[in-house]
Design a protein that fits this description.
The chain is α/β, with parallel strands linked by helices. The chain is built from 13 helices and 15 strands. Helix 4 links the parallel strand 4 and strand 5.
Length: about 375
């Protein structure tokens, strides 16, 4: 479902009694999981982009036209993402930010590309997404092959010998799991490599299978709802082995699901958390976000959605056009080392974010994600 959120100067003019001029808005879509398993990610992304759109409009909008934000709910499924994408095409958006989730991103790539609409994903890390040669696809998040290298380095550092690799069969999780296996299978034993079924409430059987396989650690490449349940049920069965995960586990909801005792010691590889961002832009934006919404921003992927909006706005201004041929060419050729909320941003020829920003986090006794030195 798509919801039109008009953030324009027209309302201010109406309230003041001044006749509104006849001008069109710049329509930008925001596609993400506003409902479903990953709604925390989608709702925080919406808050970030809403705040930035308001700021853009207060400064005159884009090319002298106010920005109209079109919200689309991917509901963490490919089918819902496609339905929302088609509605955005019908509403003639000039660009789309999102979605979060590689499966959803893959489902909508061709829809936007065929409609010649610029797309900047904020949380879709599967390698295959940028290997298709799609002209209008970009992302402000890094790729899974970079994450795989950092994850493999962590496994080596811990001197693990028999690691179980568990995924959820999604495009992202399966891809990261395969990257990890390819990097490690010649160095150590991987006695278990398989998938769980997402959104179940009992993973005791899959935990028992990994234990029976003789694993001395588990690397889970899926998402935080299942990660939290695995941690809690691992503690309940008394299986005390290290548990590691990919960036989709870095969310406070994981600790709430697992409980602090079960989550303690969990190691995960991911992009820096908002609180750890040291850029001038982040230091200015994060307090403004907390004042506006009454809570801190905890999702780095939400910040990356903000980076996507800033990149799109810059491309439209500098190219002096809303046409995807011109804006995508600007992002690919001229958008270099721009200061975003999550650091300096440039895009490769394939539309990937340039540079490795992954870090390793450990959950401490208070349930906080603490970066390792």
């Amino acid at each position: 479902m798509v919801k039109r959120i008009v953030v324009t100067l027209i309302a201010l003019l109406v309230l003041s009694g001044t006749p509104a001029p006849a001008f069109e808005t710049v329509r930008i879509g925001l596609l993400g999981p506003l409902t479903g398993s990953w709604s925390d990610e989608g709702l925080q992304a919406k808050q970030v982009v809403d705040l930035l759109v308001r700021d853009l409009n207060e400064k005159g909008g884009i090319l002298g036209r106010p920005v109209e934000l079109i919200d689309g709910d991917s509901a963490a499924t490919a089918r819902a993402a496609q339905a929302a994408a088609r509605e955005m095409v019908a509403l003639k958006v000039s660009a789309v930010i999102g979605p979060y989730g590689s499966e959803a991103a893959e489902a909508v790539q061709d829809i936007f590309n065929d409609a010649r609409i610029l797309q900047v994903a904020n949380g879709a890390t599967a390698v295959s997404l940028s290997e298709k040669g799609l002209r209008y696809f970009f992302r402000t998040c890094p790729r899974d092959d970079e994450q795989g290298r950092v994850a493999a380095s962590l496994v080596r550092k811990l001197k693990l010998k028999r690691i179980a690799v568990l995924h959820d069969n999604s495009l992202y999780a399966r891809g990261l799991a395969e990257q990890l296996r390819a990097l490690l299978e010649k160095e150590l034993r991987i006695p278990f490599f398989d998938a769980l079924i997402p959104e179940r409430q009992d993973y005791a059987a899959v935990l028992a299978r990994m234990k029976a396989a003789g694993a001395d650690a588990v690397f889970f490449t899926g998402y935080y709802p299942e990660g939290g349940l695995l941690l809690r049920q691992k503690m309940e069965m008394g299986w005390n082995v290290p548990f590691l995960g990919g960036d989709a586990n870095i969310n406070p909801e994981l600790v709430m699901i697992a409980g602090r005792d079960a989550a303690r010691g969990f190691l995960c590889v991911g992009s820096p958390l908002p609180a750890d961002m040291k850029t001038r832009q982040a230091k200015a934006f994060l307090p403004a976000f907390a004042r506006q919404y009454g809570h801190p921003l905890t999702s780095i992927h939400a910040m990356m959605a903000g980076d996507g909006l800033l990149a799109v706005a810059a491309a439209m201004r500098e190219a002096k056009s809303l046409e995807a041929d011109k804006t995508s060419e600007y992002l690919r050729r001229k958008y270099k080392e721009h200061n975003g909320l999550t650091g300096r941003i440039s895009f490769s020829e394939k539309g990937d974010r340039v540079g490795d920003i992954y870090r390793t986090y450990r959950i401490d006794a208070r349930g906080d994600f603490v970066p390792l030195p």
